[in-house]
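User: I'm curious whether this sequence folds into something compact or stays loose and floppy. Could you predict its structure so I can see for myself?
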Amino acid sequence: MTTIQNSETSRLHHRGPSLGIVAATFVLLFLIGLYPVTAFNGKPAFPAPYEPLSVIMTYFQARPSAVLLCAALHFGAAVPLGIFTATAVSRVRFLGVRAAGADIALFGGFLTAFMMMVSSSVLWVMTYPGIAQEAAVIEALYRLDFALGGPGFSVPFGILLAGLSVTTGLSKLLPKWLAVAGVLIALVGELSWLDILFPKALPLIPLTRFPGFVWVIAAGFRLPRTIANPRPQTMA
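Assistant: Here's the prediction. I'll summarize afterward.
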């Protein structure tokens, strides 16, 4: 009996979508969704949480179409994020990781996607005629949307990055610098909950979001998708 190994049969391939492409799709949809509500698309731009109620009401009265487009694109972006999370966790397990970090990442990624869908739904409600004219209603919905889309996004997103960074870093599936960067971004994300108590902590949210976007794309393309086959083919 002769043992034969070749490049095709000696490695096992993880079956699933390209993590890098799925991550890039998520980020692209999210960024395109931001464009209609930023100053790049004209003023007024989406109000910050420290703006007076009159500014918030004026914005939603003047730009309902822009807000609706943002809500639709961000709702859609939650889907590739969920797919990325499920695929990434499946792959690290396929690559031999048995640590709790994989399940932690799964929790963080799914929770982030869920928060995005709920936040987008609240934005959608805010575009209906008459809602922006009711001061108490629009303020309540705005604060709820900020909680869901601000720290409600950055905190679980940080959990996703932490779970993936630690597991892939310790198992040497990703370069050390990339794993360390993921942990640092995740730490900023966990600290962003302070914005609920201290409004000046607001910058922690974009400092989690945008570097985190770069990280998930980089990790998606760098994470291996093959392992050595422990059972080589044999032929007589």
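Summary: Residues 151 and 196 are 8 Å apart (CA to CA). DSSP finds eight helices and four strands in the chain.
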